[in-house]
Design a protein that fits this description.
With about 500 residues, the chain is an alpha/beta fold. It has helices at about 15-25, 65-75, 95-105, 110-115, 145-150, 170-185, 200-210, 225-235, 245-260, 270-275, 275-285, 305-315, 335-345, 370-380, 390-400, 405-420, 445-450, 455-460, 465-475, 485-500; strands at about 5, 10-15, 30-35, 40, 60, 140-145, 155-160, 190-195, 215-220, 235-240, 260-265, 295, 325-330, 385, 430-435. Bound molecules: ligand F0G.
């Protein structure tokens, strides 16, 4: 039976009760544990806003084999509801897992071709694990950045590019395949998110794939065109609100109280289950090695925590011998984490009014603040903030290495310069930057940069003389010419001449 609620414009269906009942058997294999008060609940008891009713904390998914579950049992007796999740002495075997994950790479089954579900043994969140909603996400490339490494005086610098290979061009796809599959299995017909553009693009695609309807709330005029076009292309109900991202979240929280829509923002802990697989894939790509340092851009602050969870679980299962440091980089104009870290050791979040051209991370009140602080602390990472000018320069440098990325992703290279300068990254450390989105997400930013119209005088005045020289060398403004061969030859000469003379 379906319970229907009429809204002024649409009919929404509550989750089908039969769907929920049939899931109950399987969900006993994992629980949701509050990261604030450690209370654990069964998946079917998850509140619609994914916040703990006792302390408003966010949840993590825990499994019988994860030490979070053991700690929970020993530190806080009785905090696990009904003791249904006892520690499982039957831990997954590390060698068997490695073998199985490699084997699946040769399979033609969609579930095995997915760079998320290939690791499904460590995210048993679905009743039917063999049949998730997948668009073959993950499997993202790992590139070296030799010129940037040389300029920074470090030996080993890699970029894990989540914007390439992922079907909608950002890291969001790895989390979305997981959380949307849960929504489908639980019988939801509508899903929704507030977004700075990438989550909405991803959610719209996966919802369309699954035959679900999706509602996107985005800040009007504040998301990149590429992302806006995607949510329309995939058929989402796209609502541009006259507010910022934080305002969109506020409205969304009201909506989920009134309508049976499934929330797909990163407070949904199943998103992290998909995003954590970056850790598994990265270690595979490094032939079992763990880098010393990973840098992620920080917006709503969920991704660094998700990657940290992946590494923590690998450590617990003895798949790796130690954790990498995880550092989070924010834009100066959207820096609530950095402020809190510097002012009171990350104890208190004071929301800010966010402003940065790296629109993906224009977030002033990050939902996963506490998770991010815990991740940085427990891994020994650090924070940094970077200016608009520094982000633009770093983006041009990544572009000049033939890779390209969206502005928020470039904050990682800009942040690395800061962390090398402050000795939080040392030259012998093996560093991996997480590039989160494809360069074509925000072509307007790139064109403005090369035309010289992106940065204003005050921003450029902050650059060092060598930074200014680098900007000048990297900027390749397009030229409009008459269709005349001599004119074109003269333009090529003008470019060739200085480099010919200097060689
Ligand atoms: N990089 C890109 C390209 C993003 O789209 C986002 C977040 C981040 C970094 C930051 O990740 O929020 O986990 O700290 N974008 C969200 C969105 C907020 O709605 O697309 P985070």
């Amino acid at each position: 039976m379906q319970l229907r609620i009429e809204s002024s414009t649409q009919t929404f269906a509550r989750p089908r009760s039969s769907g929920i009942l049939s899931v109950l058997m399987k969900v006993a294999s994992h629980q949701l544990r509050c990261t604030g008060c450690a209370a654990a609940i069964s998946p079917d008891a998850a509140p619609a806003d994914f916040r703990c009713p006792v302390c408003s904390g966010l949840y993590d998914i825990v499994y019988p084999w994860s030490s979070a579950a053991f700690r929970n049992l020993s530190d806080r007796p009785g905090s696990l509801s009904s003791g249904s999740m006892m520690p499982d002495t039957n831990l997954p075997n590390p060698s068997a897992l490695r073998w199985l994950w490699q084997e699946r790479r040769t399979s033609t089954m969609p579930v095995d071709q997915s760079g998320v579900w290939r690791f499904r043994d460590l995210l048993p969140i679905l009743q039917n694990l063999e049949n998730p909603v997948t668009l073959r996400e993950g499997n993202t490339p790992l590139y070296d950045l030799p010129r940037s490494a040389k300029a920074l005086g470090i030996d080993f610098l890699l970029a894990k590019h989540q914007g390439i290979s992922n079907p909608t061009g950002s890291f969001k796809d790895t989390g979305m395949t997981a959380a949307l599959s849960v929504a489908l299995e639980r019988g939801y017909e509508w899903v929704a998110c507030a977004s700075t553009g990438n989550t909405s693009a991803s959610m719209a695609a996966y919802a369309a794939r699954a035959g679900l309807r999706s509602i996107v709330l985005i800040p009007e005029g504040k998301i990149a065109w590429g992302k806006l076009s995607q949510s329309m292309d995939y058929g989402a109900v796209t609502l541009q609100l006259r507010t910022d991202f934080d305002g969109c979240v506020r409205i969304l929280n009201e909506l989920i109280r009134r309508l049976p829509i499934y929330l797909l923002n990163s407070v949904n802990p199943y998103r992290a289950e998909g995003q954590k697989t970056l850790a598994f894939e990265l270690v595979e790509q490094l032939e079992g090695q763990v880098p010393e340092h990973i840098l992620v851009p920080g917006g709503n602050l969920a991704n660094g925590a998700a990657i940290g969870k992946g590494f923590r679980e690998m450590l617990e299962l003895r798949l790796i011998p130690r954790l990498p440091k995880i550092s989070v980089i924010q834009a100066e104009g959207a820096n609530p984490l950095v402020r809190s870290w510097m002012e009171d050791d990350g104890e208190t979040l004071v929301p800010v009014t966010a402003e940065t051209r790296a629109s993906a991370i224009r977030i002033g009140n990050p939902a996963s603040f506490r998770k991010a602080v815990d991740t940085i602390r427990s891994t020994g990472g650090w924070i940094a903030q970077v200016s608009e000018q520094e982000i633009a320069l770093a983006k041009a440098e990544i572009g000049a290495e033939g890779i390209g990325c969206e502005p928020a992703s470039a904050a990682t290279l800009a942040g690395l310069k800061k962390l090398v300068g402050s000795a939080h990254v040392t030259p012998e450390e093996r560093v991996v930057l997480i590039l989160t989105g494809h360069t074509l997400k925000d072509p307007e930013y790139t064109i403005d940069y090369h035309r010289g119209t992106l940065l204003n005088r005050a921003e450029l005045a902050q650059a060092t003389p060598s930074g200014l020289a680098l900007h000048a060398a990297l900027r390749k403004p397009p030229q409009v010419l008459d269709a005349d061969t001599d004119t074109v030859l003269r333009a090529i000469d003008a470019v060739l001449l200085p480099s010919t003379l200097s060689s």
